[in-house]
Batch of 4 targets.
Target 1
Amino acid sequence: MKKIKILALILAMATAFTACTAKKSDNRKDRSVGGTSEVLFVTQNDEQWNGRMGEAVREFFETEQYGLPQPETNFKVAHININALNDMFQKHRNLIIAEIVPDLPNPVIESQNDWQSAPQYAIRIKAKDATTWIKVFENQKDDIKKHFDSNERARFMDFFHPQADPKAIQAMKNVFGCTMIVPNGYYVAVNKDHFMWLRREEADKSFGLIIYELPYRSTDDLSDARLIKVRDSVTKKYIPGPTDGSYMTLDKDFIKPVFDTIADFPAGFAIETRGLWKTEGEFMAGPFVSYTVVNPEATKLVTVEGFVYYPNKAKRDLLRQLESILWSLKF
């Protein structure tokens, strides 16, 4: 009887994963659901969720996101059991489905983009026991997170693209020969010497987008020390603080900048920098993320950055919004 139930479960899941192809011949997908930065973990029972499998998923996705002044996780992991995976939950944007099949000789991994909605990434991992399942997840988790990060950016772009500001986009194109999907609400605060600062001011928070370019001479220009030095020099010159003599700089003590290479950045190979900015001479700070790329049409190094000021409030999702805008960079 137990094997019959497991077989029925596998057949039901296989049917669910392929059903949308038959239902939607026009290839249109419903919009995916789920909270911002949320992962839905589907298990067969509560024991899997409360045990080592659920713990492995939570430990990875709910680690603290680097560069935020207050602790915030990269993702929030929500949970349901397989019998609750109805039409609505099948449309969740970031979906992990776990199955334990005791007589399964080898693990099975099945994944699909835009399975029942868009943007969506659904992955199903089947294994003979919890230990094997966790090993498979550990090998796949970084790739899964990349897909989920991409979905979060796509979600924001679906919202931002219809409200793009053509004046801001054209101003950037005129100076740098590139474009980004800048939403309405931003205005050009500084535009000189191949440096541009776009601001968006709200009652309790501020957003900033900056872009600047310099001659590209060698790979030394992409070193960590050089990127920090250049960034501090331009923000000191062009982004003043609220009082005389104050200016924006990078925090190098409380939260040091970290660097990563992004091979799949849309505008080309990029160096990503994350950390905390602060205002020298004032008690102001916030998170930032930037990408530095080589302009393929010229020997120029272009940096685009987003930063936010929202004191004593959660900023992870606001930074994700800015990150999404930066990922729309095109030459």
Target 2
Amino acid sequence: MAELPRILDQLERAFDGDAWSGPSLLATLIGLSAAQAAARPIPPAHSIWEIVLHLRTWVDTGRVRLEQRYHVPIEGEDWPAVPLLADEAVWQQTQTDLAKAHERLLTAVQALHEKDLDEVLGAERNRADGTGVSIYVLLHGLAQHYLYHAGQVALLRKLV
């Protein structure tokens, strides 16, 4: 099997599928109210809502980097604040925006060719902004990012 279908499978499993590690990202968000998502049960830690906004930022950034085949700056704020009007409709829209960003990412991945996976984005490795890695590493990193934050959401959810 070619590598791109495997990577797409991993992205889908991590976001909303049967992830090997446990619940997918979306599974950890099911049934959370806006108040729960905005809560800070651990004051210095980010809220679930902030995590979702952060993930959307990085999914959009990864997609743009794929489409432009270039290291572009982060698309938006790394850790956007929860909107002032944090009601149920806005929370649902935040989740919808993340799902749409994920779908746009999948579309960008589907446009790739196997040879693109070795292309390096950025001249040197900068861990903070995710540059200097191949497209292959970027895509696996995005799947890992979903699951890393799914774990955080699962823990925070137990506290709210």
Target 3
Amino acid sequence: MGRMQEAVLQYRDLILEAERFLWEHPAPGYREWEADAYLKERFEELGYQLTEPGDIPGFITQIDTGRPGPCVLVMAEMDSLIIPGHPEAQADTGAVHACGHHAQGAAMIGLAAALTEPGILNGLSGSIRLCCVPAEELIQTAWREELRKKGTIRFFGGKIEYMYRGLFDGADIAFMVHASNNPDLDFTVEEGNNGCIVKNIAYEGKSAHAGGAPHLGINALYAANLGLSAVNALRETFEDDKHVRVHPIVTGGGSVVNAIPDLVTMESYVRAKDLDAIIQANEKVNRALAGTAAAMGANVRITDRAGYAPLHCDRNLADAAILAAQEVTEPGRCAYVPNWSTGCTDLGDVSCVMPTVQINVAGATGTAHGVDFALSDPETACVKSACMQAELLDLLLRNNAEVADEIVRRSDPPYDSIQEYLEVLEENERDARAVTYEEDGTVQLKW
């Protein structure tokens, strides 16, 4: 056992105590104030100076080795899901860590504690930036749009918001570890994940008495039903290898049964493997929504916001992660798996500007995002995770950070800077009514 693992294992009880607290205090994105306070207190007890974003949860702290070299960004997500049917969901909010993000915070505390041990940085070069970050789960998007309008946030996802606020400036490499329900392997790295655009959709009709004078109304619910059918009819036009996913939900379908619904609201993602495929699929979806609104004499307001970029895990960094994992687990219990996930993560945004990898760690059971999800093995998901992360930092930064430098040299992220990437996102945002009815009877569609 190496010195990094020994340093982490001294704090096993602290890690497992944090896992229980964070599990018992879940909150969705940009509401993680209890977890935020707990994590900050633990970090400050360890002697860390924190940089906070101000009006949203989370923080960063930087550890300098005293020798020049790259900056490695290590992240832990803080937010929960909303799964009211989960047996351990909060009674008032339905919040529960049914994706295991609380394990990341627990492991981060162990890693942070280990890095305070005397002499632990000897032989390392560069710097380590530890980050507890909010809002990975892309939920409650209508509420986040209200935060955006108030100026509280600019982006829905926590990592891209941190990028926007400058908290990731100067970082050269990024990684994080996420809980997995794989019973066969303790650590895995996959090829990557889909990205997405976030859509808020409002069909606008005209109310009237549903029994006495329905001919005087314009039924927004019927228009929305047509829109859902049109989107479904598009599915065979999506290329299989682009992994396109469109999955709208109705969030408001009318207020009273005896009035024609004049407003129906929906949310959706448009997901795909690359940004071009996301944009192309989204144009088709918008055209379907606009056309069905016009067919009913209604209108539809479409708000498209930056979701998450596709995550392309850097293969050289992935190989380093697997080597580090081999130091903390039995032979044959870790592997690179060339699978593509059709889920999304805002870690994809980070991968647009620097070599990035997400490592999956075992320890969970049940269905991710499901009512039966549980962290059945916190020893693996938290303690072993912290050990692996410490080993990876050692591998990257020892010997004048030669491994980290080589990964950076060989990487080719899509964008040269965070600013360039943010400008591309802004170009694809929109917020407008899609249908214009002209006085001469013609109808104009924006999409």
Target 4
Amino acid sequence: MSPERKELPSSRRGYFIVLEGGEGTGKSTQLRRLAAWLAERGVPHCVAREPGGTPVGEGIRDLLLERKALRMPAETELLLMLAARAAFVREVVEPALDRGEVMLSDRFETSTFVYQGIARGLGLDRTRMLNRFATGGLEPDIVLVLDLPVDEGIARRRREGRGEDRIEAEGSAFLERVRDGYREVAISDPRAVLVDGAGELDEVQGRILELLGRRFPELFGAGEG
């Protein structure tokens, strides 16, 4: 029997929820679990990843992540990320929000601030300025940043038998800068919340749902659990 469809509050356009985090923190797994939670309750939602989600975005993703031997200047990497994001916002995010859906995204602009702005050393201010052009000023309602020590993330990834993409292969020192960058941005961005990524999947999901219940009680409140 299919779940009864839940109508979202008519007073708002939609919800834009982003999961972020370094490598092996479990953000993609928790995004899938959150999508399943919404589906069980008949909540209309859309799930996508960044870079990707559109034909041009997936092509850029392959160039950025899968071609390990490819070397490129940090500025080129940043501009390719933003090119993919411009399509993602206009072809995926905006339509989902216009339909009044919950938009779930595996990464968004915070990744760019952290990986290119901080870890690559391009600067947060310049990165934010260029990103705003790509997004047209669209921002998430909340950014959940899963936090896990780098060595634990690497060990988890290896246990799962996952290989490294081009950026993951940068090494532990780079990934430590990424983790520090996420913590820095989470402190300065009122939309971002650090979530402890350690523990069993159900424990981490419980933390996420508790945070979302406090931020959006009309959708994730105790009565919906």
